[in-house]
Write a structure and sequence with these properties.
This protein has 182 residues and is mostly helical. The protein has 10 helices and no strands. The chain has 2 domains: 95 residues, no CATH class; 79 residues, no CATH class. The longest helix has 37 residues. The termini are far apart.
Length: 182
């Protein structure tokens, strides 16, 4: 768990001003970021348990990365728990178990081990989906799927664009050969 002062030092001036206003603190100089950090760090009213949940999920993820903590997951509570040095606990596990299964997540879980594809092999839709999920799992590591899907969709778009380019080139070459024969 990083100390309170270190976490506060990573917050922006605007975030610190919001904490100061919310807890009615009086820093020696509101314009000075260091004075804001000092005022919040010295306060017993402004605890990390109250400050962190007010931050956005993306901001919590950035703080986790700053302190070299796991930033995966969708739940803010889990990110806050990591920053506070606590495990997400039984409550978070219960939330995961009661959450309805996403159809893609269920398909990925049923997929099992990574799929090997031989060159020239005809893929079924199910094998292709398992292959893509295993590739995505390798690429993303511990990152949440909502964070990496934009990259994967971009790669799929570029692959499709490349395939269409190759098809058009082959068609033009074939048309050119037919023109020479006439």
């Amino acid at each position: 768990m990083p100390p309170k002062r270190q976490v506060l030092a990573e917050l922006s001036r605007d975030e610190l001003v919001a904490v100061v206003d919310r807890h009615g603190l009086a820093p020696r100089d509101r314009r000075s970021r260091d004075a804001l950090v000092d005022a919040v760090a010295a306060s017993k009213k402004a605890t990390l348990e109250e400050i962190l949940p007010a931050l956005a999920r993306d901001r919590l993820k950035a703080l986790c990365r700053t302190f070299r903590l796991d930033d995966g997951g969708r739940e803010k509570e889990a990110l806050v728990a990591r920053l506070l040095g606590r495990e997400a606990g039984v409550e978070a596990d219960a939330k995961e178990q009661t959450r309805p299964a996403n159809s893609r997540k269920a398909a990925r879980d049923e997929a099992g081990p990574p799929v090997e594809v031989s060159p020239g092999e005809v893929l079924t839709r199910e094998r292709l989906e398992r292959y893509l999920w295993s590739a995505a799992d390798i690429l993303r590591g511990s990152i949440d799927s909502s964070d990496y899907k934009g990259f994967i969709f971009g790669l799929l778009f570029l692959k499709r664009l490349s395939d269409r380019f190759d098809e058009e080139c082959e068609a033009l070459v074939a048309d050119g050969e037919e023109g020479k024969r006439r």
